[in-house]
Amino acid sequence: MIQRPPPKVVPTAPGPPVSRSGRLSALLHETALIAPAAILLIVFLILPFFMAGYLSFTNERLVPRPIPTRFVGFENYTRVLGDPDFWQAFRNTFYFALLVVPLQLSMSLGAAMLLNGRLRFRSFFRSVALLPLVTPITVIIVIWAAMFQIPDGLLNNLIRLFGYRGDYVNWLGDARWAMPSIVLLSAWATFPFQMLIYLAGLQDIPIERYEAARIDGANTWAQFRYITLTGLRNVHVFVIITTTIQAFKLFVQVDLLTRGGPLGSTNTLVRYMVQEGYSAQRIGYASAIAIIFFILVTTFALLQRVLIPND
Amino acid sequence: MTSRAARYVPTILAIVMAVIVLVPLSMMFTVSLNPDEAQIQITLGTLRAFIPHVVSLENYQHVLADPHQPFLRYLLNTVIIVVGIVGLGLIVNSSAAFALAWGQGTYRKLFIGVVIAVYVIPGESLVLPLLLMMSRVGWVDSYQVQIVPFIANSFAIFLFYQFFTGMPRELMEAAKIDGAGLLQTFFRIGLPLSMPVVSTLAILGFLDAWNSYLWPLMVTRGPEYRPLSVAMATYFTSQQAFWGNVMAFAVLMTLPVLVVYLIFQRWFVASVMSSGVKG
User: Fold this and answer.
1) ipTM of the complex as predicted
2) Which residues contact B69 (CB under 8 A, 6 or more apart)?
3) Is any Cβ of chain A less than 8 angstroms from the Cβ of B250?
4) For chain A, which domains are there?
5) Is A45–B118 a contact, with Cβ atoms under 8 angstroms apart?
6) Which label site among A78, A137, A156, B85 has the fewest CB atoms less than 10 Å from its CB?
7) Facing residues of B249 across strands?
8) Is the Cβ–Cβ distance between A115 and A192 less than 8 Å?
C-alpha cells in the first residue's frame, strides 16, 4: 500500500450559501462520522505510542508496586546499548533478515515467472502456490516441527538421500542450524505474498520489449537480466523493503519452536522485548527496546519512499 | 538441451514447486488420520507420512472431546473476535473515511497525514504500553481487549478514503440537492457502494485473526477467551509426543480458512495483494 502516492485531499467546492443552522447540522454530521475513529485511533494507537516513548525514560513495572515509578533519564537506553543480550538479539534479527530476504525473493520471483510464462494447468499451480498463505502460521510451525524431527524426520532423511554422511542434523537444537531452519520455514510460509506482487509486476512489463530483444538476438539470460529485472525495479524495492520489515518482526516461529535458544541463537528483537517487558515485567526497559525497534522499522519504511519516486 | 526437452522445463519446475508446497500440508492430513501414535513416530520421516494409508477420525474425536482444550470454544472465540473487529471496524473506518473525503473541515488534510504516518508504526512497539493500559482498566482476559483496540485501523481508513475520493462529485451533489446531509449520504450512497473495499477488509481481518499471536498470548489467561492461534501453540506444547492429535487440531483450525479460500479465491488474491498479512 505504501508504494502508492497518497491521494490529494479533494477540495470541496463551496456550495450554495447555507443558513447558520444548516452549517451547524453539517458540522454535527461530520463530527458524528469522524469522532469514533478519531477517538479510537488516539486512545489505542497514538497514546500508546507516546506512552512507549515516555515509559522508556522511567523504571515502570507491569504490576504496580509500593515504590513509585520514577523518571530515570536515558538510563534504560544506555543500559540497552551495553546489554550483550540485546546485541545478540539485534544481530540475530539482522542475520535472519539477511538469510530470509534473498531466499524468499528468489523463490517468489521464480514462482512468479513460472506462473507468468507458458504453463499448462497454470491456475491449478497458482492455487497450490498460494496455499501457505492461507495456512495459519501456528499450523505451519507445527507441521515444520514434525519435519525437523531428529534423528530421522523428513528433513534428515532428505539430506541423507542427497548424500549427507553425518549422523543427523539437530535442526532446532544446534545453535548453528536453528536460525537457518527458522529461515526455511519462514520463507515457505510467506513466499506466496511476494510472488503475487511480482506476478502483478511481471504483467506490467510490455510483451513487445521481449519481442524486440529477441529480434535483436538477445538470449534468455539477457532478456531476464535487462528486461525482467530492470522492468521490476520498483517492485524489487517494494518487495525487498516489506520483506525486510516483516523479517525484523520475527517472533512466533522462534517463540514456539526454540524459545529463542539454543544459547540465545534465535532470540530476536521482538522476542527480547516481550521477554523483558512481559515475562520479566520491566516495562520501562522493554519500552526502550520498543522505541529502538520502531526507529529501525521506520527507517526502512522511509527508505522505500525515497527509493521509489512518486509518479 | 534440445528445444523439445526445454518445453517441459516449466512444467517440471512447476511440479517441483507444487511438491514443495504440498508435502508439508499432505503430511498434516495424513498424520491426522492415523490413530496409531507408535506407527506415526516410526513413519514420520518416510513417504508413508505423506500418503494416507489409514483413514480414522479417532484423533479428531480426541481433539473435540478434550475438556482441557475445548476446540469449539476456541473456534467460537476466534469467530467472535473476527466479527467484532471486522463488523465494528467497517462502520467506524468507512464513516471516518467518508467524512475525510466529502466533509468541509480544513482539518482533513492533517487527519489523512496522521493516518498515513501512523501506518508505519509497527504494532510490536505498542503492545507493552497497550498491555499496561489494559491491565490498569481490568480488561485483561476478555473479548473486548482483543477487539476494541483494533477497530479503528489506519489501513482500512486509507483504503476507504481512496475509494470514496474516486466517487463522482455529481452523485454527492445530487444527494445534497435532495436534502440529504452527510450522514444520510454516507449510509444511503457511500457505504452501499463501497462493498469491494468491505470484502477486502473482511478477508484480511479473517486471515489476521487466524494468524494473530503476540497480543492474544499476552492478554488471555485460559481457554475462556483464547483464540485458535494461541490455542494451537499451547496444544502443540502440551501434546508434544502426540502428533496425531496435534495434526488433527491443525487440520480443524485450517479448514475454515481453506474453505473460504476455495470459495472466494479471486477476492482473496486481490485482498492479500493490497496488504501483507502475516507478521
Assistant:
1) 0.90
2) B63, B223, B231, B234, B235, B238, B249
3) yes
4) 83-307 (1.10.3720.10)
5) yes
6) A78
7) none
8) no
Q: How far, in Å, CA of B278 to CA of A53, rounded? A: 26
CATH superfamily of B71-273: MetI-like (1.10.3720.10)
- Per-residue model confidence as pLDDT tens digits over B198-251: 988 888 888 888 999 999 999 999 899 999 999 999 999 888 768 899 999 999
Residue A257 sits at φ, ψ, to 5 deg, of -90, -40
Q: Which of B:57-116 have CB within 8 Å of A? A: 91-93, 95-96, 98-105, 108-109, 111-112, 114-116
Give the span between the Cα atoms of A143 and B247, in whole angstroms: 8
Of B10, B27, B95, the CB nearest to A117: B10
CB-CB neighbors (< 8 A) of A22 in chain B:
none
User: Does residue A19 register a pLDDT over 70?
Assistant: no
A71, β-bridge pairs: A58
Locus of grid cell 544446534: A174
Quick one: cell of A249?
518482526
- Distance (Å, rounded) from C-alpha A165 to C-alpha A143? 26
Interface test with B, best of A25, A30, A118, A256 (most B CBs within 10 A): A30
The residue type of A253 is Q
Helix (H, G, I), strand (E, B) or coil at A71: strand
**Three cell numbers at B253?**
483450525
